[in-house]
């Protein structure tokens, strides 16, 4: 494992060249080609397909666990179990984040239950009180004399490969042979640093249990065709109809979604002004979505549990902790609109309704139009990764 330093001081923020290019393409791209494609319904319903995805994607590739802001304080720890491996996240007193398996090296007892951050200079196993420090080192064994000949230096907590960059915590929870964080600490971190993610405050987090295949949820964030329809009573009025420009960063997708107003007259180096007319979204392969609204960011971490069940943890990040009742009321409205209605009811509701329809056998394939080809590209990436 490598230690990870959370960035504290960041340079003045401006859009990255890639973000600027996407914004300009929203204005200039020709209408989307009138092309259709299809995806087999079994991609969402077949248990064997689901098992292959777990093995080849979620057990092999880096996944996002959450924002750095979910464990901001030095000297604190929390547990994470959404990807099936028991993880212990521990930020030491210098701010460096460490990840370990949440299991004692004596007889494997689970060490801690802490889904929320908790201050911890040390962790003591509840069974026989072996104790560990934030760097994972075994610090103490009661009745040490009864363990002759053991090498305590080899009995530290088991490290989990991870990287903290751009305000996100990435990890390979199942410790594959090789873990490649190159894109996470490189071009993606550049974009997220431009959005100021690393310095943001976690306003709220909530885990939704969605009764659908995880890819149906990703699909909702890979096209803007539905925004004027499904979201007609919530956010439709903020957006133009299906005006989106996208590119890729390895298997990850990045999109600029045009809001009403357009770029005309906007100084594209005026980042707040640009974000008022363009919403940037990131589909981080395999299963994380980031949506950068004008003044806050939602990060959604999808954690598949079964072929037809997914946990989605929604994090809302804002520039700083609210200082007044007015600010608290403002952010409460944003949280209720996005987490409560747009995602929690509309997008996740559509995914659940889609799963029911797929399982009915009504269609052996689903049909994608010209505004939905981001979904086709994503499914092609999944298919390629599982071989
Ligand atoms: S199992 Fe942890 S101290 Fe014994
Ligand atoms: Fe949506």
Share of helical residues: 25-40%
| Overall pLDDT | 94
Q: Total strand count, please?
A: 20
Using the alpha-carbon principal axes, give the shape.
globular
CATH architecture of the largest domain: Alpha-Beta Complex
Written overview of the protein:
The chain has helices spanning 17-28, 42-45, 47-58, 182-185, 187-194, 214-220, 227-230, 271-277, 325-359, 373-386; strands spanning 4-5, 37-40, 63-67, 76-80, 87-91, 96-101, 118-119, 123-124, 131-132, 138-140, 162-165, 168-171, 201-210, 239-249, 252-259, 278-284, 288-292, 297-306, 309-318, 365-368. The chain is an alpha+beta fold and 387 residues long. The protein folds into two domains: 12-61 and 201-386, Naphthalene 1,2-dioxygenase Alpha Subunit, Chain A, domain 1; 63-179, Rieske [2Fe-2S] iron-sulphur domain (Rieske Iron-sulfur Protein, 3-layer Sandwich). The strands form five sheets. The protein has a seven-stranded antiparallel β-sheet, sandwiched between helices. The longest helix has 35 residues, at 325-359. Residues 220, 226, 231, 347 line the site of fe (ii) ion. The site of FE2/S2 (inorganic) cluster has 9 residues, from loops.
